[in-house]
Specification:
Length: about 260
């Protein structure tokens, strides 16, 4: 700043030293000081703002990185869950396929055994019918032979009686005794045959009763108490094959050796 000094008279013979400065220089210095202060204030404010912005950017970047990390974890967990779900679905599908195959094998086995049992039962029925027919034919033939024999014996006896009428009474008595013996033998034979036929008839009736019982067992619906008894009986059998076997036995599709021998 440029300054000048001057002596000014004051009317009393004295002078005053005055300090004068240039107005323009003073104004210029003031403006410079004001400008520098403003610039410093602006610079400080700018630095504060930039520091705040950098802090916000750093915070936002850290938050974004954390969010990205959480999203990555979530995606990994979701992919792992999907992989586990796919694996579980594949295992379930394999198990279902195995169960279907096992049921198919069991169904095939039961069907085959049922078919074999049905064929065996049909063969047994045909054999039984053939046996009964043969026995009936044999019985008829035996009766016819017995009748023919009796007729022949009667004819011979009659011829002998006519031929031996002149014989002595002793011979006639002996012949009559012989005839009585023959009649006794014939009567015993007829009695024995009747007993055999009665026993055969009883056996056939017992077989028919068993068949009727099997037919009754197959009839549906059954009384509640009978259904409960059957459910308890079959429910106690844990083995599926054993349960199927007993069901087929009760339905008459299977015959054990004792029953077949009894029917034969």
């Amino acid at each position: 700043m440029a300054m000048s000094f001057s002596v000014v008279p004051n009317g009393r013979g004295r002078s005053i030293v005055a300090l004068r400065s240039s107005t323009a220089d003073v104004v210029s210095d003031l403006e410079i000081d004001t400008t520098e202060k403003s610039q410093r204030s602006l610079l400080e404010a700018r630095l504060v703002m930039e520091s705040s912005q950098r802090a916000k950017i750093a915070g936002a970047a850290a938050q974004a990185a954390e969010i990205e990390k959480e999203m990555a974890k979530a995606m990994a967990a979701k992919e792992q869950e999907q992989a586990n779900a796919r694996q579980a679905e594949a295992l379930l599908k394999q198990q279902q396929e195995r169960e279907v195959a096992q049921r198919a094998l069991l169904t095939e086995r039961v069907t085959r055994e049922a078919k074999e049992a049905r064929e065996a039962a049909e063969a047994a029925l045909v054999a039984e019918q053939a046996r009964q027919k043969a026995e009936e034919e044999a019985r008829i033939q035996a009766e016819e032979e017995a009748k023919a024999k009796a007729a022949e014996e009667a004819r011979l006896a009659e011829e002998a009686r006519l031929a031996e009428e002149a014989r002595l009474a002793a011979i006639l008595k002996q012949q009559q005794e012989t005839e009585r013996n023959q009649r006794a033998l014939l009567s015993a034979r007829l009695t024995r045959e009747a007993t055999i036929r009665a026993a055969e008839q009883a056996r056939l009736e017992a077989i028919e009763a068993k068949r009727a019982e099997k037919i009754r067992f197959r009839q549906q619906p059954k009384p509640k108490d009978e259904e409960s008894t059957l459910a308890t009986k079959y429910g106690a059998m844990e083995n599926v094959e054993e349960r199927a076997y007993h069901i087929l036995m009760d339905l008459g599709l299977f015959h054990n050796d004792d029953e077949e021998d009894e029917e034969m």
